[in-house]
Amino acid sequence: xxxxxxxxxxxxxxxxxxxxxxxxxxxxxxxxxxxxxxxxxxxxxxxxxxxxxxxxxxxxxxxxxxxxxxxxxxxxxxxxxxxxxxxxxxx
Length: 91
What we know:
Layout: H1 6-32, E1 42-49, E2 55-61, E3 64-71, E4 74-81, H2 85-90
Antiparallel strand pairs: 1-2, 2-3, 3-4
């Protein structure tokens, strides 16, 4: 009737237990400051919806800004945003 053997269930339970134990250990190491999570140099600064499925994302990568145009078919354009010194002092 069923092709599942009891040993297979035991193996799956051991595997899930090992994953749970690894998660607990890693969270404790991060909380104690012994492990530092990976910090990304890329972050989304702002997102603007311009249509039902169209968005503009302002992304910062290592201090440089890029404007990503995303549509329903995927990413259509990437433009680097350059700000001059005069614009930043006027604002």
